[in-house]
Write a structure and sequence with these properties.
CATH architecture of the largest domain: 3-Layer(aba) Sandwich
Strand content: 5-15%
Shape: globular
Number of domains: 3
Number of helices: 22
Largest sheet: 6 strands, parallel
CATH superfamily of the largest domain: Glycogen Phosphorylase B
Number of strands: 10
CATH topology of the largest domain: Rossmann fold
Helix content: 40-55%
Length: about 500
């Protein structure tokens, strides 16, 4: 009869070969010989996890731990909890890890990961820092820590962590992009814009236009800042509406450098840009045009303009006082239809594109905390997705359901005293038009809003309000209500 060690070795060999069924049989045979063998219980837990039997894996890992508290038994248990997204269970072992495994990188890393997923960022940072002292070459550890530093506005630390990632994994486009955004959040655009060129949106924009114009849009005629005085420049959109509005500030600068400027933009933006002649756009394309019908010499994606122009420091914030205007006839039309009253007119929006980000979405009903303020009239500017939620708001005029392009939206907000909205395209439109705007930011703030949230560098008329903790909209709306009442008492 084979000894228990021989049976375990047979099971382990089968396990390594991928024969999970026979390995499991061998492990159970070993348990018949020794019911208190912690090693075997853990091996069964590992095997069950490989088979996707997560609950069973948890049971066997816990049995192993009840017999002997070995670090790798906890690793099996933690991996099972991670598979179940049950991060709270991992944090329940915090004191055990601190007491018994303070030098175990893997357990400290998993503890940090658990706190990260529970949005307990301070604790997550602490344990990532401890883990990285043990294994300073962990790319994933530095990557996760860098993001947490960014969320907690420890921007210099975030930059340092991403630089370490860049050393561990040189020339990785993803890391260089995140390093770029971290640098830009510290307002270091001199270095940040270079790394920002690694963004996925840029690659996708070039690829999309190359499909339309394969013979004319090539790598060798990408504009890199050379003299284009006698050339036609094609600029094309990338990313969302807000980004296009924000970066359109550079078009008048570019127009002075080239003979002709062609812009490809999304159709809802086309009427707005067409009516803003000061941008210097000679031709706007918002639908497919055959290659034979378009003529240009050089091309560039829109968000690459500040880097290619070599803008540094505050030059990046060109025209922060406003650079877009509403069409006068349309403005008057909306004024007579909705705004012939003496009240303070406040436009609101709570949602952008939820496909890319949900943290920025504000529960629409939160605005009910503002709509009862005396001498105010509220207007919903929520368009398309999310507009159906206007029904839950009281004392409000719903204009958004009828807005189909940004020229119309611009005409509406040119009649409004204050826009209050989430981090969405409306904030950029109001900012670009010089309309007073209060932007409500989630706790995890996008790079463009920097760290000094008392002001906005991109738009002098924009004020920023940030959540004090994840999901905390109540304190933000209490602050906004207080600020509106203060403003009304002064006026």
């Amino acid at each position: 009869m084979p000894s228990i060690s021989e049976v375990i070795n047979i099971g382990f060999s089968l396990h390594q070969q991928g024969d999970l069924e026979e390995a499991e049989n061998a492990y159970f045979e070993a348990l018949d010989l020794d019911k208190n063998n912690a090693e075997v219980y853990n091996l069964i837990g590992v095997l069950k996890l490989q088979k996707g039997e997560v609950e069973s894996a948890i049971d066997y890992a816990q049995k192993a731990i009840s017999i002997s508290k070995e670090g790798y038994f906890f690793e099996t248990l933690f991996q099972a909890y991670i598979r179940n997204s049950d991060y709270k269970k991992i944090t329940e072992y915090e004191s055990t890890v601190k007491e018994l495994f303070s030098d175990d990188f893997s357990l400290l890393f998993n503890l940090a990961l658990a706190f990260k997923n529970l949005k307990e960022n301070k604790k997550a940072i602490k344990y990532y820092e401890k883990a990285l002292k043990i294994n300073p070459s962990s790319y994933q550890g530095w990557f996760n820590l860098a993001h947490l530093y960014g969320i907690e506005a420890e921007t210099k630390n975030a930059v340092s962590a991403f630089k370490i990632c860049n050393k561990i994994k040189p020339h990785d486009p993803e890391i260089e992009y995140f390093l770029g955004t971290a640098l830009m959040r510290t307002k270091d655009y001199k270095h940040g814009l270079k790394y920002f060129e690694n963004r996925i949106a840029r690659t996708a924009a070039i690829a999309a236009q190359n499909k339309s114009y394969p013979n004319k849009l090539r790598e060798d005629n990408l504009w890199r800042g050379e003299n284009i005085k006698n050339k036609t420049l094609l600029v094309y959109y990338e990313a969302g509406f807000g980004d296009v509005i924000m970066f359109s500030r550079y078009l008048p600068i570019v127009r002075k450098l080239c003979k002709k400027l062609i812009l490809i933009c999304q159709k809802p933006l086309s009427p707005l840009f067409a009516s803003n002649k000061q941008l210097g756009i000679d031709e706007i394309i918002d639908t497919f045009v055959p290659e034979s019908n378009i003529d240009f010499d050089v091309h560039i994606p829109l968000l690459s303009l500040p880097y290619t122009l070599g803008l540094k420091n505050d030059d990046v914030f060109a025209f922060s006082g406003g650079y877009l205007y509403a069409e006068n006839g349309l403005k008057d039309e909306y004024k007579s239809k909705y705004f012939n009253n003496d009240k303070i007119k406040i436009g609101i929006k709570w949602q952008g594109n939820t496909y890319t980000e949900t943290d920025r979405v504000i529960p629409a009903e939160k605005f009910n905390e503002l709509t009862d303020i005396k001498n105010t009239e509220f207007y919903s500017l929520q368009t398309f997705e999310g507009s159906e939620k206007a029904f839950c708001l009281s004392n409000i005029t719903d204009i958004g359901k009828d807005l189909i392009d940004f020229a119309q939206t611009a005409a509406v907000i040119s009649n409004i005293d204050l826009v209050i909205c989430n981090d969405t395209s409306l904030a950029h439109l109001a900012g670009a038009m010089g309309v007073p705007c209060w932007v409500i930011l989630p706790y995890d703030v996008n790079w463009r809003w920097h760290t000094d949230l008392s002001k906005c560098d991109w738009y002098t008329n924009v004020r920023l309000f940030r959540q004090k903790s994840f999901g905390d909209w109540d304190s933000v709306f209490a602050e906004i209500k207080d600020e509106i009442n203060k403003a009304l008492s002064i006026s």
